[in-house]
Amino acid sequence: MSRTAHEGSLTGKVALVTGGSRGIGRATALLFAQSGAKVVIGDVDPDGSEVVEAMKRDGGEAVFVKTDVRDEGEGRLLLDCGPGVLARIRELDGGWPRVDAVAITHFHLDHWGDIVPWVWGSLYRFGDLVPPPELWLPQGGLALMHEFADRFGLPHMFEQAFRPHEYTGGTAFRAAGLDVVPLRVPHYNVETYGFRVSSAETTLAYSGDSAPSDQLLRLAREADLFLCEATLERGDLDGDPRGHLSAEEAIEAFTASGARRLLITHRPVELPLDPGLEQAQDGLELEL
Ligand SMILES: [Zn+2]
Question: Which of 124, 170, 204, 274 has its Cα between 20 and 30 A from that of 230?
Answer without folding.
Answer: 170
